Amino acid sequence: MCLPRLFSAIAVLLVPFFETAPALANSDFEPIEIRLVTGAPADDGALDTARSETTLDVEPETLLGPSDFVSVGNVHWTVEGDKRSPGFNVMLTPAGSLAYERISTENVGRTLAVIVDGQIVIAAKILDPVRAEGFLLTMNSEAEALSIAKMLRQVIAPDT
After folding, report:
1. Does 60 map to a domain?
2. Is residue 1 situated within a structural domain?
3. Which residues contact 18 (CB under 8 A, 6 or more apart)?
4. The pTM is what?
5. What is the largest distance, in Å, between two alpha-carbon atoms of the chain?
6. Kindly report the CA angle at 9 between 19 and 95, in degrees rounded to 5?
7. Is residue 81 domain-resident?
8. Do residues 23 and 117 make contact, with C-beta atoms less than 8 angstroms apart?
9. In a 3-state reduction of DSSP, which class is residue 35?
10. Domain tally for the chain?
11. Is residue 4 one of the residues assigned to a domain?
């Protein structure tokens, strides 16, 4: 089953992705987390976006972390308009789903960063509150998607 994008009511601002298999790029961050972006790109204390020279400053508070996720799906190809991309679903726990709804409701107009392995893979502006049980992460290549899904699966659901 392909979930609707977590950010179906969110405008995607950046969609940079990893080029190679990730190793923990920034030990200050969890393998997967969601934080709010503080504002415009900054020179000091900013987090890099994967495969881009753009940096964004993120809030220190992790809004959703590994314990808020329950599973990582298999890699499959998605179609959006004329673009095909490999991706995989990441499912939230029931508490994570409720937290995401609260976060999106309280922060309409702000930008959220999905951080994987210490790099922002998606930064999106919240347009409306979002109610979701998970979301789809898409990558530029199947190798990237397989590598990142495997790494996240080991963190989120190591026994599956």
Report:
1. yes
2. no
3. 50, 51, 116, 117, 119, 121, 139, 144, 147, 148
4. 0.74
5. 41
6. 85
7. yes
8. yes
9. strand
10. 1
11. no
